[in-house]
Design a protein that fits this description.
single chain; alpha+beta; three-stranded antiparallel beta sheet; 8 strands; about 50% helix; elongated
């Protein structure tokens, strides 16, 4: 009797693949999202601000630590520190006072030097006027002497100069010649000379001084004006609030004389 055919046995099921661990997968995704970092501009700004804030806190903590160390010092140490600060402050005050005094002395010295310079310049100007080396102006008179006959002698002009000086004349010019202390007159008539320079009539005297004193000195009885009129000459005097004496003499350096001041 035929045997029944064996029935096919079902194939054993394949081994099931192991299921992935949920925790392991989450960590991988988190790591993938954090690295490499993807920072926005706002996140960078926030990070920088946090860094600066942390640095400030560190500095504050350090300063507080230093102050804490000072607060923890002994009384003797604090007294010594205060004494040192007082000494340093006093030295600075002394140095400030010294510098202010030095500045004041320099300013005073500068002012004195400036005043001395001004006085020297003024004295030089005054001496220049007397020596005839600088021009001068001021109130005074103009004396004009006409000599149509040529009878005037040099001593008559010299007398006029002497009268004017005695009346307070400070600067005198005759025609284009500056008359000073050592001026001399020579010749007569058509060959009149002052300091060797020939001058011709009419003789024009420009004189700086007080007009109220100069004019009467020439018009006194028997004075310059009357003497000239006797020689057929005429003399006219005119007052002025501004007389300009601009004829100059060359400055001379003495050959032998020198200042005796030390």
């Amino acid at each position: 009797m035929p045997q029944p055919a064996p029935q096919a046995q079902p194939a054993p099921e394949a081994a099931a693949a192991p299921k992935p661990d949920a925790g392991e997968s989450g960590r991988r995704r988190l790591a993938a999202s954090l690295w490499p970092p993807r920072l926005s501009r706002a996140q960078l700004v926030v990070a920088l601000l946090l860094f600066v804030l942390g640095l400030g806190l560190a500095i504050q903590v350090r300063s507080t630590s230093d102050n804490s160390a000072l607060r923890g010092a002994r009384q003797e140490d604090l007294v010594r520190i205060l004494d040192e600060l007082d000494d340093r402050t006093q030295r600075l005050e002394d140095e400030k006072t010294r510098l202010e005094k030095q500045q004041s002395e320099l300013e005073s010295s500068s002012d004195q030097a400036e005043e001395a310079r001004k006085q020297t310049q003024e004295k030089e100007r005054q001496l220049g006027i007397l020596a005839g080396t600088v021009a001068a102006e001021g109130p005074g008179i103009t004396l004009t002497i006409a000599d149509p006959s040529g009878a005037i002698e040099s001593d008559m002009l010299l007398d006029a100069i002497q009268e004017l000086r005695a009346a307070g004349a400070e600067a005198i010019q005759v025609n284009d010649v500056r008359v000073v202390a050592d001026s001399y007159f020579s010749g007569s008539g058509r060959d009149m000379r002052i300091d060797g320079t020939q001058v011709a009539a009419p003789y024009v005297f420009k004189v700086i001084g007080k007009p109220e004193d100069l004019e009467p000195a020439l018009n006194i009885p028997g004075g310059v004006v009357q003497t000239l009129e006797k020689e057929q000459a005429t003399a006219t005097v005119q007052r002025s609030s501004k007389i300009v004496v601009d004829a100059l003499r060359p400055a001379k350096r003495p050959d032998y004389a020198q200042s005796s001041s030390q």
